[in-house]
Design goal:
Number of strands of chain B: 0
Radius of gyration of chain A: 19 Å
Structural class of chain A: mainly alpha
Distance between the termini of chain A: 31 Å
Strand content of chain A: under 5%
Oligomer: heterodimer
Shape of chain A: globular
Helix content of chain A: over 70%
Largest sheet of chain A: none
Number of domains of chain B: 1
Strand content of chain B: under 5%
Radius of gyration of chain B: 19 Å
Shape of chain B: globular
Number of helices of chain A: 11
Amino acid sequence: MIRKYIALLRMKYIEMLAYRLATFVWMTGAVAQPLITMFVWMNIHPEESESFVFYFMAVIFVERMTSAWDVWELDREIREGTFSNLLLRPLHPIHWAIAENIIYKWLFAVILVPVWVVAAVFWPALLPHMTGSQVVLFLLAVVLGAALRFLLSYSCGLLAFWVTKVAAVYGVIDVISLFLSGRIAPLEMLPPQLREWSEWLPFRYMISFPIEIATGAADRGEVARGFAIAAGWMIVLIAALQWLWKVGMRKNQAVGG
Amino acid sequence: MRRYGRVFREFFRACLVEEMEYRSEFFGNFIASFFGIAVALLTVHIFFYQTDRLGGWTYGEVLVLLGVFNALRGFIDFALRPNMPRLLEHVRRGTLDYVLTKPVDSMFYISFRHLVFWRLIDVALGLGVIGYGLYVERYVPSAADVCMFLIVMAASLLLIYSLWMMLMTTSFWVVRIDDLSFIFDSFFDTARFPGSMYRGAVRFVITYVLPAVLITNTPALALLGKWSVPAALAALAVAMFFLWLARRFWRFALRFYTGAGG
């Protein structure tokens, strides 16, 4: 299995190099929205400018580390029928997607981490103040967030067996996540009702939660509870994915046969 | 000029007929547009949950600005964006020759041949938000305000058109143009909010280099009665300059094209 994965990773790496410009463009594009939002908040609370700088830089970083685009890939592959090719291969198609995610996020990390380090030299506000255990928890939360986002994206993508416009469905989910994951505002800035929802829905754990650990905004009890809720969602999403896969395959064969 | 009006009407009619073949899409698009504006309003609402001023602008004023932004973006999606991939295709296949032999100006043809009709909903929704913003602000624009608004809005349209035309023209050299339009979108998104909100280098760039701020802020201010004749004239002058630049660039690219084709 490990040997297979190494081969997969290498293939995906070569594929990515072929689209270097596109990769670059998507990276810069992802920066614009958080930066604009950052300016808005710096304007509203000028006295907290420094913490907003750190927060939104962290949003850009975590967002890149956890982002998943599988729903668009699946939408296209299932609609155009190329998904069947993947089914014929000896490995479950989800492993191709996982390999792709790992490679891209590795690339983003390789680029973003040095950028962050250099920026922190000129902009002391970007220096993180984290203890060793905070770093470990932060990384753990990022991985968990990436897994949650991937599972959600892939499960939605599988809906393409039934619905023709999956990307539109995901668009709605993405907007909800825009507010509840902390991309439009640090969650403590939201009205109390929304803040309460964000606690129980999975979106907070995709972006805001790791950052809250990094800034120390979440205390020990909150962190423990956060991990528990995120793990709960993880189980739910894995179950949903498996079920969708099973039913989807049956549906796919009904059409194909 | 009359002829161009007639040609444009003909483009409009042809695209409308095309659009009507996919009527079921229309409803979905309608919902998507409504959803988009609702999200934008909600975002502004979240910001104003914490404050009552954004870069010196009140809630109602920001709404007017948002309306202008939405209308202008609707215009881009209506006329400019759909033509971009076609130009790319023309250049790649060499079919641009057909366009060049047509008895209308090639730049005009290239930029307006394909219209995505339903995107005008966004323009209408934008106007609606402008109206709502004025209502919130309890401000009734005078005839002079509206007149000034129309003038600077025309300047903004010219500016956007010129910027897009320059972007489109790069398709003579660039292969994947959708990436470029993505960058433009990111930039244009800054125009959603008051320019006075930004600081430092970002403010400088979006005010003077890529005048995103000029494009949306001036019309919004004009409608709110905060206009001045010199500012309007400056906007017009900048727009004319960019149009001239876009025209020059298009001519230059065409020379490059014939060079490559021959």
